[in-house]
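Handoff note, outgoing to incoming analyst
You'll be picking up this chain. Sequence as last confirmed:
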Amino acid sequence: MNLHLDPATPADAAFPNRIPVSRDAIAAYVADSIAVKQALLADTALLDAIGAVVRLCIEVFRRGNKVLVGGNGGSAADAQHLAAELVARFEYDRPGLPAISLSTDTSGMTAIGNDYGYEHLFARQIEALGQPGDLFIGITTSGNSKNVLKAFESAARRGITRIALCGAGGRARDIAEHALCVPSTHTPRIQECHILIIHILCALLEENLFPEHKAPKPALP
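Most recent structure output, in case you need it:
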């Protein structure tokens, strides 16, 4: 079936709840995203918790340990995003930082899922790759992803610091040692703030670990 629909066409009577494609509808999405970020900005405890996680990561890297990251779906992409920024670079050239996304090895993940069950996806990798003194960041918008919760348990047994990057609810905040809980229960808004927090983390790590590599900004004319 080949449909040629005019985005400006009013919603059909059969679908009264359909959101029309309009400037106002798009602006409403932007405003909703801004509102959650404003709530994050006003949450001083969360801002302090982000700072505490940055300092923990600085200590981890300075003593020669690494960061492990895991998540499902969009959070898997965020885990890969964070690891890539640390290993490669964020804002400027500097030495690479040891970070591993546990969401990218398809052979390993399918083997673990097939042989042990999907809930063991990250825990098994932590058992194989994690060392005492490492840090694990579990990303779960619901706070209840079973494989992330099991990963926290595995990390605890191995002496690995546990960080949850989550939303306003779920069990992750109670299992992790440090929880960065976005003040929302709406998955897209939580994920948008997760990317913001990830970028803050990367920027502050570069600034504090490699200040000598930062090129001076050109003087204003």
